[in-house]
Amino acid sequence: MKVKHYISILFICLLTGLVSAQVKFEAKVSKKKLGVNERLRIDFEMNKDGDNFVPPSFNDFDVVGGPNTSVSNSWLNGKRSYTKTYSYFLAPKKRGKFTIKQATIEIEGEIYKTFPITINVTAAVDAPNGNSGASDIAAQNIHLVAEVSKTDPYLNEAITVVYKLYVSPETGVSNWREKDNPRYNDFWSQNIEIKGLNIQKGQYKGEDYRFVVLRKTVLYPQKTGKLKLEPLVLDITVEVPTGRADIFGRPIMTKVPKTVTAGSRTVNVKPLPEVGKPADFKGAVGDFNFKVTTTKSQLNATESLQAKIEVSGKGNLKLFELPKLSVPSSLEVYEPEHKENVRTRLSGMQGTISDTYTIVPQYKGKYPIPTISFSYFDLQTESYKRVNSDELVVDVLEGPTASISNTESSETVATKQPVRPNSNTFAFIKTKSNWVGKTRTPFFQSTAFWSLLLTPFFAIPIAIFIRRNKDKRDADIQGNRIRKADKLSRKYLSEAKKALNNKEAFYVALEKALHNYLKAKLNIETSDFNKEKIESLLSQRNIDSTNISEFISILENCELARYTPITQDTMQSDYNRAAKTISTIDKQIR
């Protein structure tokens, strides 16, 4: 029994020694989730010395420190413990989920690899990790601030966000770049161009600072409730004094890389009041003038004139529809040509939008163009206002009359004579003819004769069917609106293709095409557009989630492209994606 006991102990000792002799090579990170303005430390540890260490390619990170090598030797209870570590300090380039791939090393002739590690990079955090010393001084002397003009606007009321970089007098900035751009998912946004960075003097929390304005953005909220403005994140190089001076007495500066964020802001968007809201309100918010004009008041039939519906002033001019023109049925009206002459400044949109209709009268007479009403929400009085156009009259001087009344005068009503029946009344009508054509065959009862005789009997039912379909189509107001929006979507998509060399015009036209397509298919107005509602409505129509995500992604690209550099290839790719996505959704929609 004692022999067996000793054998068991010896076996356990050998097994323990074998396990302890195993080679370990692994990657460890300081955290798997961090903000875009934080730093990540990654250590590659091994329990035996090796050669030919190959780190992974940190494509999605900037290496701000390392590699640092450390070796640890220790003895515990007569056993040697060895650890060798390669350390790197990384700064993420952008948000998202990224994978740090395998590192390799050669130990005792064998190649060992680490496991890949997935890192989740989120939006900037308020208290990022950082280095001590110069980095702390830089953090105290550099501040990125987002100034919001109004935190409780109405739906579709313009607000501005101005991003300022404050720098203390004893600190300098040598260069900067935008690391993470804010996304305004629930806003219509327009970036205001800044020509040159002018250094100005100001105060930050009661202390004297210098500052520059980096970005100005105009926002129109498209959704009510608490909306979050994502922060702007910058990578900057800060020049911090070391406390030492050169031989000429000038302070010696050291450069410190630093990531700063403006922090997130919340805007509480108020809904427009329901009390007093007009039934024909289309979402116009601001201060507007409204008029309807015609190019002619007198003309002849089949000549044309133009009627223009025009709204001018200050407000969300690009975000609502103009009222429709209503004319008598005797006037033929063509689809309107929409024009926008709008400038977006820091105070919001200003300018004019109009719909111009071409009208062609068919008959002689005087035709009134009824009064058209336009309503909007006035921000100054916080109430709804209505403007009515003047009634116009189109006088058609020459042309056919619309109807002729055949009435018998009293003179034509003479004394009726008695009718005497005659059995041979139709005897003078010949039932046979000697007419001949060029072929010398009788025309009467020929194929051509019967064709001409029977054609009206077949044509009349067809004409009635076409007429009924036309009346039904004309009466389908909703269908006509959808067909119009569909046509406008194709028009704007065509305009986007023509503007591929102009980034601003291209993305404005592309966004309009997507919006008009949604109006046509989902029957929603511009003021109702938000990501959640679009996703919900498309899901209800049995659209595949992949196509919904693609559609939302294109809309976000249109917003983002207004203030980021875009290449020609990216614009072409966005156009192709938009055309493909609209086509795919059109096949799936129910």
Task: Describe this protein's structure.
- The protein has 590 residues and is an alpha+beta fold.
- It folds into four domains: 20-122, Immunoglobulin-like (Sandwich); 134-269, Immunoglobulin-like (Sandwich); 286-396, Immunoglobulin-like; 477-588, Nucleotidyltransferases  domain 2 (Four Helix Bundle (Hemerythrin (Met), subunit A)).
- The protein is 25% helix and 38% strand.
- It has eight helices and 30 strands.
- The chain has helices at 2-20, 134-141, 447-475, 477-498, 503-522, 531-540, 545-560, 568-588; strands at residues 25-29, 33-35, 40-46, 51-54, 61-76, 79-92, 96-100, 104-107, 110-113, 117-122, 142-148, 159-167, 172-180, 187-192, 200-204, 207-221, 225-229, 233-245, 251-261, 265-269, 286-294, 298-299, 305-315, 331-333, 337-345, 348-361, 365-369, 373-378, 383-388, 392-396.
- Strands 11, 12, 14, 15 and 16 form a five-stranded antiparallel beta sheet that branches. Strands 21, 23, 24, 25 and 26 form a five-stranded antiparallel beta sheet that branches. A four-stranded antiparallel beta sheet has the order 1-3-6-5, with no helix packed on it.
- A hairpin with a 2-residue loop joins strand 8 (104-107) and strand 9 (110-113).
- Helix 4 packs antiparallel against helix 5 (503-522) and helix 6 (531-540) packs antiparallel against helix 7 (545-560).
- The radius of gyration is 40 Å and the shape is elongated.
- Residues 1-21 form the signal peptide.
- Keywords: Membrane, Signal, Transmembrane, Transmembrane helix.
- This is BatD family protein.
- The chain crosses the membrane at residues 448-466.
